[in-house]
């Protein structure tokens, strides 16, 4: 019940922030209309002059509703500084090529100081999907991360978490080239709040099974992200300094992610 209330509050908060972001964007500059730019994302835009170009030299508030910074990549577990899992955590052994990370932002608010530097806070969602190797089932409502070994073969055994994340980003970008290209470098910390955990299994015996629980995933997470790229495409790396699980035997198990960002701006 408490987690449902927290989830409702967080999602409602994102909705309110989106409205505030759109309002701040509208109030910070006088304009005749909003420009909505369609591409890899949809962003409630910036003021253009009579020639149709944005004046990048002046400081201004920016923000609004967006669908951008879509991160698609791989996740890696780190067990007390090692990529190899310890014997007590060996049940978490996973298929590296099928263990993935997905995230995107839906709102952002910030301030652009000039054409090269911007600070903004964003809000969005992310998922970590661990494709387990062993035929095990994580147990619900347990004080520690617990599993049972199953006498069947799973064709898919996925152990997942989903979070609401709130990154604070510092963006540096180059001047626009004569071909309209810019390079972006973005770095910043992030906090996140657990929405839920989930087990998804497929087997001949039971068919498709989905079970939701918190599965002792950390209710609060913190870490950082770095991105570098150009023209809407970048590479990213994320490292979460907090433990992945709120479970004593898994103390020191952390995770990281890396891959491609679509819609860097």
What does this structure look like?
There is one protein chain. The chain has 265 residues and is mostly beta strands. Helices cover 10% and strands 52% of the residues. The protein contains one helix and 13 strands. The strands form three sheets. An eight-stranded antiparallel beta barrel has the order 3-4-5-8-9-11-12-13. A hairpin with a 2-residue loop joins strand 11 (220-230) and strand 12 (233-240). The longest helix is centred in the first third of the chain and has 27 residues, at 2-28. The protein is elongated and about 65 Å long.
Please describe the structure with a list of short key phrases separated by commas or semicolons.
elongated, eight-stranded antiparallel barrel, two-stranded antiparallel ribbon, mainly beta, 265 residues, 52% strand, single chain
Category by helix and strand content: mainly beta
- Fraction in beta strands: over 45%
Overall mean pLDDT score?
A: 85
Report on the biggest sheet. Answer: 8 strands, antiparallel, barrel
The beta-strand count equals 13
> What is the overall silhouette?
elongated
Helix content: 10-25%
The main sheet orders its strands as 3-4-5-8-9-11-12-13
Q: If helices are DSSP runs of H or I spanning 4 or more residues, what is the number of helices?
A: 1
Radius of gyration equals 21 Å
Which regions are unreliable across 5 or more consecutive residues at pLDDT < 50? Answer: 4-9, 14-45
The topology string of helices and strands comes to HEEEEEEEEEEEEE
> In angstroms, what separates the terminal alpha carbons?
38 Å
């Amino acid at each position: 019940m408490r987690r449902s209330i927290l989830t409702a509050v967080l999602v409602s908060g994102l909705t309110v922030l989106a409205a505030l972001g759109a309002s701040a964007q509208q109030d910070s500059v006088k304009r005749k209309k909003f420009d909505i730019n369609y591409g890899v994302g949809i962003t409630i835009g910036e003021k253009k002059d009579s020639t149709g170009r944005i004046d990048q030299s002046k400081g201004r508030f920016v923000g609004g509703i967006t669908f951008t910074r879509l991160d698609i990549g791989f996740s890696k577990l780190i067990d007390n500084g090692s990529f190899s899992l310890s014997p007590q955590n060996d049940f978490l052994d996973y298929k590296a090529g099928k263990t993935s990370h997905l995230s995107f932002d839906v709102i952002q608010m910030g301030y652009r100081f000039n054409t090269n530097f911007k600070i903004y806070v964003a809000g969005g969602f992310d998922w970590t999907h661990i494709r387990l190797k062993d035929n095990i089932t994580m147990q619900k409502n347990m004080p520690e991360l617990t599993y049972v070994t199953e006498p069947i073969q799973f064709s898919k055994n996925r152990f997942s978490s989903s979070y609401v994340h709130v990154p604070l980003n510092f963006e540096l970008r180059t001047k626009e080239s004569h071909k309209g290209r810019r390079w972006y470098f973005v770095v910043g910390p992030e906090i996140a709040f657990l929405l839920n955990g989930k087990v998804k299994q497929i087997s001949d015996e039971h068919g498709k099974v989905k079970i939701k629980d918190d599965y002792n995933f950390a209710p609060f997470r913190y870490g950082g992200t770095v991105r570098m790229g150009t023209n809407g495409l970048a590479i990213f790396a994320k490292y979460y300094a907090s433990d992945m699980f709120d479970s004593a035997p898994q103390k020191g198990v952390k995770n990281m992610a890396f891959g491609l960002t679509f819609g860097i701006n």
